[in-house]
Amino acid sequence: MRALQTALCILAAGAVTTAGSAKADPRLQDAGPPPPTPSPISVRPAVLIGPAPSVETTILQLPQAEATCEGLAVQPLYADDLPAQQAARRGMSDAETILAFSVASDGRTVDIRPADAAPAAFDTLQAGLAAWRFPAQARKDCRLTIRWRSVRLDEAEVPDLLNYFAVTRTTGALRDAVAKRLGGQGADCGDRFGGRRPDTVVFPDFEKGRKPPPGGRSWSVTRWNIDADGRATDVETLGSSGDVDLDSEARRAAAETRMQPGPARTGCVYNLYRSGGTLAAPPLTPEDQREDPLQQCPPAVADRFAVRANPVFPTVFNERSIEGWALIRFDIAPWGQIGNVSVIEAQPAAAFGVDALRLVQSSQATPGFEAGVRCVVPVRYKLQDETAAPDVDQN
């Protein structure tokens, strides 16, 4: 098969960590919350939970995950927490979300895709699974089965609240309500500054200690009070993914940050997280561009094609610094119209194929005298420094 030799490279800002009290990368700070998972370590101290706010009837769907390959349970060496979901009503306890995947010989997850028609919101689950690591052994026919447990906000326990606050990473009234409950009885901080003007803000050293593997993310939730002089008191780690160095740095930053004098506040709660750096896409080999006896795409036809749509790096993979690619098949009419567009393969997850399909569907070829049938273009999603701009590399 002669594949259309066009590679679209989508460039986005890479992950950068910042240490000390210098200006820190905002992606490594309060990003809202990360996700709950099957095997992460969590700190679950006893906490006084105050009365539920006005959104107490909100239903949270909390995930419980199990991985199998060829019908046998497999345990990951590393697994990120999976995010809770907000539901409109109770009663989805029996619902399941299943992701199919494979394990490469080095233990990373590939071929990630919904086992059934899953909504786009579950792209976050694909991105989370892409960061998992299993023992170094190639495995096929793997499944991640996620069962959802329903709980009302006013009935949620601390681990449930931490899951939504630190893993789901949302903003708005529900997260504010969760933060108030995590703040404890009588919490009145409102935000990490307690409504006070900061005098000195100290950032954690995100480079200290052992970071998560590429594509992975760790989180830490800290709680403290602010006295009338603006000093932090009773600083503690409320919950964590198990990154003890991040926990220590989060406590230090909270303890050394100073507010201007004012009313004392209690129950300040804040989330920090850090990522493990860029996870490169699985290699795209000639074997991936399989021979197609039905292909009729002469070089002269292939050269007329150009991607004209705006590239969009899948957001949840960009946030985790996970690169990918997709192979897209399509036809070219003599007058330049593109049709019969389909995804041949996408790695490490199907989500990359969704945007690549959109890119090709929205593009066009220059008019000519020949049609092209079952042409193929590789679309590559790469992370570069933040000064790089989206580009099209046509070989």
TrEMBL record:
It is found in: Cell inner membrane. Residues 201-210 have a biased composition (Basic and acidic residues). InterPro entries: TonB-dependent_transducer (IPR051045), TonB/TolA_C (IPR006260), TonB_C (IPR037682). Its main location: membrane. Residues 1-24 form the signal peptide. GO terms for cellular component: plasma membrane. Keywords: Cell inner membrane, Cell membrane, Membrane, Protein transport, Signal, Transmembrane, Transmembrane helix, Transport. It comes from the Bacteria. Residues 21-42, 201-220 are annotated as: Disordered. It is a single-pass membrane protein. Belongs to the TonB family. This is TonB C-terminal domain-containing protein. It comes from Brevundimonas mediterranea.
